[in-house]
Each structure stands twice: as structure tokens, then as C-alpha cells.
Design brief:
With 239 residues, the chain is an alpha+beta fold. It has helices spanning 9-14, 24-34, 47-53, 58-72, 76-109, 162-165, 181-186, 217-227, 234-238; strands at residues 114-119, 122-127, 136-139, 148-160, 171-172, 193-194, 199-211. It starts with 8 loop residues before the first helix and ends with a helix.
Length: 239
């Protein structure tokens, strides 16, 4: 169901693009401005360093001193119990961070390496890392979507968004309403948008890339996962 360019000129103006896409030169300029379409993670710290980092907590230090005093006082059983608790606490904290790292790696694997775009008015296949805001992507059944994008042309398009919503049923998509200017000025309209890491399971469509890398829904999930910190217990706060 194509929409005439003249009908949605404010839409293309907003995203600084056109139905025929952007030029290769402009794409390079936008890569410099917005960065590559990647999920960024913190520099990986050796696992042994991460584990030892669990012993820097004030509560843990107090318990280690308690273990030493228990040994010096001849309370070997008490000392062993305290030491066991300290190592159990460190192990739990380490495992939580390890799982968070694995979750981010799994999200990165969901971004497929290639995407079909219109550059200089010609459809071409590029690395998904080179997608930039304003790119016009061409979607077909079976495609993995490489960036958060707003649809402007749809032909019975349905996507699988379980990765974001947990909903197993495909979601029917509609083209952007050219009269609804408020939607794209404030935020991406969900029913008219497709998202990084999701898949086209039926139909075809064209969409304008609105967000790449960490400025996508899956990027925000990755960011929250990486920044998750263990809350202090009431006892730790009092100490």
C-alpha cells in the first residue's frame, strides 16, 4: 500500500530523508554524527577481577574481620560459617553480573549482519552496522530488522516482536498516517514502527530509520541490563 511522497513530505523532512533514501556521502556524515549501528558494552573485565571485586563491599570487609577474630578466639566453626557466607555472597553477585554480560551478548547476536537500503535511489545491500537515521530500509518476509524504523509503505506486513514484548503472535503493521504529525515529533508510533532485532514474518514494506545502536528499544534494554546493580540490604545501609 504505497503512499505518495507529496502526502508525507513533512514526515520525510522530519527525518531528513526522501522516499529514495539518502546518498552514500550523507550516510558517511551521519555515521560520524550518530556512530555505528552497534550495541555497546563496557570493556570486559577478567572474571577473576570481577570475582575479587565482590569483596570490596563494606559488609563483606566487616565479615572478613569477624572471621579473623573468630579464628583468633578459637571459634573455628563460627569462622568457617562466616567465611562460607562471605564466599556464597560473592559467588551470587558474580553470577548475577556474569548472566547480565551473557544477556547483552545474546542481544548483540540478534542483530543480523546485513540490511537492504535505498542509497542514491538504488536498492543495495549493506552491513547493518552502517545503517544511519534517515536511511530507507526495504523489508521482505524473513528479514531481520536492523534498526528502529517508521513505516511509510506497507503490503500486509507482520512482524514477530517476542524479543521485546514476549508476545508470540505476529503484529500487523500499518503505514504512518501522514496527517498525524504529533506522533513522529514526540515519539515513534508503535503500530507504524518496526524495531531492531525483530523479524518480518509476512508481507513487505519500506521504512525510515529513526534510531540506531543504543538509541533503539533493544539498545535501551542492553543499557539497563549493563547498569543493573545489586541493591544493598537494610543491614548494609545501617552499617
Amino acid at each position: 500500500m504505497p503512499i505518495l511522497e507529496g502526502q508525507i513530505s513533512p514526515f520525510f523532512t522530519h527525518y531528513q530523508t526522501a522516499p529514495s533514501g539518502i546518498t552514500n556521502e550523507e550516510a558517511q556524515n551521519r555515521i560520524l554524527k550518530y556512530g555505528r549501528n552497534q550495541l555497546h558494552t563496557k570493556k570486559k573485565t577478567p572474571y577473576i577481577v570481577q570475582f575479587l571485586g565482590e569483596f570490596k563491599d563494606l559488609m563483606v570487609i566487616i565479615l572478613l574481620f569477624a572471621t579473623i577474630f573468630a579464628f583468633l578466639s578459637g571459634e573455628v566453626i563460627d569462622a568457617m560459617i562466616i567465611l562460607f557466607i562471605v564466599f556464597l555472597n560473592a559467588t551470587i553477585g558474580f553470577v548475577q553480573k556474569f548472566k547480565a554480560e551473557k544477556a547483552i551478548e545474546a542481544l548483540k547476536k540478534m542483530i543480523k549482519p546485513y540490511a537492504r537500503v535505498l542509497r542514491n535511489g538504488i536498492q543495495t545491500k549493506i552491513s547493518a552496522e552502517e545503517l544511519v537515521p534517515g536511511d530507507v530500509i526495504v523489508l521482505e518476509e524473513g528479514d531481520n530488522i536492523g534498526a528502529d524504523s517508521v513505516l511509510f509503505e506497507v503490503n500486509e506486513l507482520e512482524t514477530q516482536e517476542a524479543i521485546l514484548t514476549g508476545e508470540s503472535m505476529p503484529v500487523e503493521k500499518n503505514p504512518f498516517n501522514p496527517m498525524d504529525h504529533v506522533a513522529f515529533e514526540m515519539k515513534m508510533p508503535i503500530n507504524n514502527s518496526v524495531f531492531m532485532g525483530t523479524m518480518c514474518v509476512h508481507g513487505t514494506g519500506k521504512a525510515v530509520v529513526a534510531g540506531t545502536g543504543m538509541n533503539t528499544e533493544i539498545g535501551r534494554i542492553a543499557s539497563l541490563t549493563a547498569e543493573t546493580k545489586k541493591d544493598k540490604s537494610p543491614l548494609e545501609k545501617e552499617l
